[in-house]
Amino acid sequence: MENIVYLLTIMSLSMALLVPLHHGQCEAAARAAAAAATSCHHAGTGAAASASASSSTAACSRSCVGGKAPRKQKQQQPQVEGMFVFGSSLVDSGNNNFLNGSGVRADYLPYGVDFPLGPSGRFSNGRNVIDALGELLGLPGLVPPFADPRTRRARARAALLRGVNFASGGSGILDHTGQGEVVSLRQQISNFESVTLPDLRAQLRGPAAAANHGRIKGQDSFHECYLSKCLFVIGTGGNDYLLNYFNPRKNDGTEGGPPPLSEFTTSLITKLSDHLQSLYGLGARKFVIFSIQPTGCTPVVRAFLNITGAACIEPVNDAVALFNSELRRLVDGARPPRMPAARFAYIDSYKIIRDMLDHPAKHGVRETGRACCKMSRRSSGVLCKKQGPVCRDRTEYVFFDGLHPTDAVNARIARKGYGSSSPDHAYPINVKKLAML
Length: 437
Description:
Layout: H1 2-18, H2 28-44, H3 47-64, E1 83-87, H4 129-136, E2 163-165, H5 185-205, H6 207-211, H7 221-225, E3 231-235, H8 238-245, H9 248-251, H10 261-281, E4 286-290, H11 299-304, H12 314-333, E5 343-347, H13 349-358, E6 367-371, E7 397-399, H14 407-419, E8 426-427, H15 431-436
Parallel strand pairs: 1-2, 1-3, 3-4, 4-5, 6-7
Antiparallel strand pairs: 5-8
């Protein structure tokens, strides 16, 4: 019976994401507001961002060579040099906007209804968890999406020092996870290595360093003073279950069906470990890893199975909970001997969201089972209807669409991951302590 529940649920989700979305025009007022906000945003990525990045980098360089540290500035200084983001739609900040073949997009209203830039490709009414975490870390602006051509323009390259977002909605740990055009985790890391890393070296050490980025090791100030002080954030895994393991279209040619769930989960963790080691080999030292959310409680899963009230589909949650437990073990065992200098903060999004679902009144939540926006029939209840109505008070809802949390929930996940002392929220340390290492 549980297998039937899995297959029915995921068949709906996979069919939803097979349907490509058409580009719609936003309302005139929204376009004007977004244009004005974009103008302000890009003004911030020019001289001010460059000055901030240069000051921070210069301070680090002087520290590494034994120079005096600069006097403290009155304004808040970033707690990390930068933040590089890899994963799926929960952390995608707009990369899928630039994938013509993607059916997983959020570049239209009501997405971004509460975001200064309007619809930006974030699967939320406002911020995603990366935006909220960046604010807590004192980053000078939004982490730009890799695929946006503006990210690599000459005037914006200095802003790369604060980080780049490589995440792609619909992608997973496995290369073949997802429908339509997505950027796999492997390709995201390749984009960091082949494009962004040379650009960063060019900003910090000049063109000669960029040309030699693959051969400089040891006491390299670029690694010691910059990359080792950046956060590498990974939020992925859910789609490997939704769009791969439990997707009949993926397994109809497999003799005897898919492998046992435990075997599949172990293979996922092994693949993810390999990807983390690749980032480690490129200079990453501080990792923030997000768990998979309680997928069995999302509106699309519950609606498809005609579940009412506060009930979640626990067999679906059991699958992701197994992955999350193995992911936490990976954090415990990843360091020696393969990644001896790595440090981790595991953020348990599952428990943070589940606590809000189980105790809504404590968190000021009114609606735990329905999406805030009207759902699109073309997406089978996963994404919002274009230009469709939304709930009046988004802070009272856990989910904005059929699968993704609201701005308020993303902010709570970020706050708990950043500053909580509970291992049920952040393990073995929180992001604030990780940034201080």
